[in-house]
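stage 2 :: seqdesign
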C-alpha cells in the first residue's frame, strides 16, 4: 500500500466510522473525529470540493480534533465512500449535495453534539452549498475556502480558455459518452455522477435560479443563512478568483461576510492554488490561524481584504 494511502487508512481507524441518512433514503458514509477536551470548542462539518473525497480532509480534521473540536468528514452521494455500486444512471445532482447531503450532515452533527457551536468548513462548492440547506440558520459560523461554483466567466484571465475547454467542453463530452464523469481515469478528480458534472459544465440552475420552481425554492433558502462567514481567496487560485467568490456569496444576502485575500508569500510558500491549503504542510501556519476564526470568530488576517474594484459582471 502506498505510504499516503496507508497513513489515510490509519487516520480513518482513529476516527469513528458513521452512516448519515438523508431524508430521501440515500445513505452517506463519513467519520467523526472526537476532539480533545470533549469537543469543547464546538462541532465542525467539513464540506468537500466537487470531486474530492473526504479522505483528503482527514489531516485537517484530526488537527481540529486535537485542538478541541468534534469534526465530521463525509462524502457526498456518488463520491468516495458514498459512491453506489453503479454510478451510471444514479441521477444525483449538485443541488442534492446541499439540500439533502449537507442538510443531513448538519442535523446529524447537531444531534450528536447538542447545544454546541455548529461550525462549517466549506471548500470550493462546499462553501456555497450550505445556502440551500433548509437548516442553514442553525450554523454558528463558517470558514469558506475558495467557495464558488465554477462559472467560466470568473476563471483567472490567463487560464480561462484552458479551464473552459477542460471543465466545460471535455468534461461534459466525456460524461455524455460514459454516462458519468470518469475523473479517476483522467487523473483529474474522483468520478462524478453524470448530472453533477453537467450541472457544473453547463451551469444548470445557477445561471437563472428562477427558471424552475425547484431552483427558486432552493435559492430562497439563502435568506435564512445569517451566520458570520470568513470567505478566503488565494491570489494564485485560477478557479476561485475574488470575482468567482463574490458571485457565489452574492446569493448570501443576509450573511455577515468578511473577505480575505492571501498571497502564497503570506503563508511562506511559492504557490498555493485551489487545493493546497488542506495539505498537512500548512499545519503550523494557515491551520493554526483558522482556529482563531472557528473558535473565537476572530479574523486572523484583518489587513488582507481584497480590493473593492474586483467585482463580477
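stage 2 :: out
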Amino acid at each position: 500500500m502506498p505510504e499516503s494511502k496507508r497513513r489515510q487508512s490509519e487516520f480513518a481507524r482513529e476516527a469513528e466510522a458513521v452512516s448519515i441518512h438523508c431524508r430521501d433514503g440515500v445513505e452517506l458514509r463519513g467519520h467523526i473525529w472526537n476532539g480533545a477536551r470533549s469537543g469543547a470548542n464546538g462541532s465542525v462539518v467539513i464540506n468537500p470540493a466537487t470531486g474530492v473525497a473526504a479522505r483528503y480532509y482527514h489531516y485537517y480534521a484530526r488537527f481540529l480534533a486535537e485542538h478541541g473540536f468534534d469534526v465530521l468528514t463525509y462524502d457526498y452521494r456518488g463520491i468516495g465512500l458514498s459512491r453506489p455500486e453503479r454510478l451510471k444512471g444514479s441521477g444525483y445532482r449538485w443541488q442534492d449535495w446541499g439540500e439533502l447531503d449537507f442538510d443531513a450532515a448538519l442535523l446529524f452533527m447537531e444531534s450528536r453534539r447538542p447545544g454546541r457551536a455548529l461550525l462549517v468548513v466549506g471548500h470550493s462548492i462546499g462553501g456555497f452549498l450550505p445556502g440551500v440547506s433548509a437548516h442553514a440558520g442553525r450554523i454558528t459560523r463558517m470558514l469558506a475556502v475558495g467557495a464558488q461554483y465554477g462559472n467560466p466567466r470568473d476563471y483567472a484571465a490567463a487560464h480561462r480558455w484552458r479551464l473552459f475547454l477542460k471543465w466545460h467542453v471535455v468534461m461534459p463530452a466525456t460524461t455524455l459518452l460514459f454516462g458519468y464523469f470518469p475523473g479517476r481515469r483522467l487523473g483529474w478528480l474522483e468520478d462524478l455522477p453524470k448530472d453533477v458534472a453537467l450541472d457544473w459544465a453547463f451551469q444548470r440552475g445557477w445561471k437563472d435560479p428562477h427558471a424552475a420552481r425547484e431552483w427558486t425554492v432552493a435559492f430562497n433558502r439563502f435568506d435564512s443563512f445569517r451566520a458570520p462567514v470568513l470567505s478566503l481567496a488565494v491570489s494564485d487560485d485560477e478557479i476561485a478568483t475574488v470575482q468567482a467568490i463574490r458571485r457565489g456569496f452574492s446569493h448570501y444576502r443576509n450573511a455577515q461576510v468578511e473577505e480575505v485575500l492571501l498571497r502564497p508569500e503570506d503563508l511562506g510558500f511559492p504557490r498555493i492554488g485551489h487545493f493546497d491549503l488542506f495539505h498537512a504542510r500548512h499545519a503550523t501556519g494557515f491551520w493554526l490561524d483558522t482556529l482563531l476564526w472557528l473558535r473565537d470568530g476572530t479574523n486572523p488576517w484583518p489587513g488582507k481584504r481584497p480590493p473593492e474594484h474586483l467585482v463580477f459582471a
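stage 3 :: structure notes
- The chain is about 30% helix and 15% strand.
- The first strand starts at residue 16 and ends at 21.
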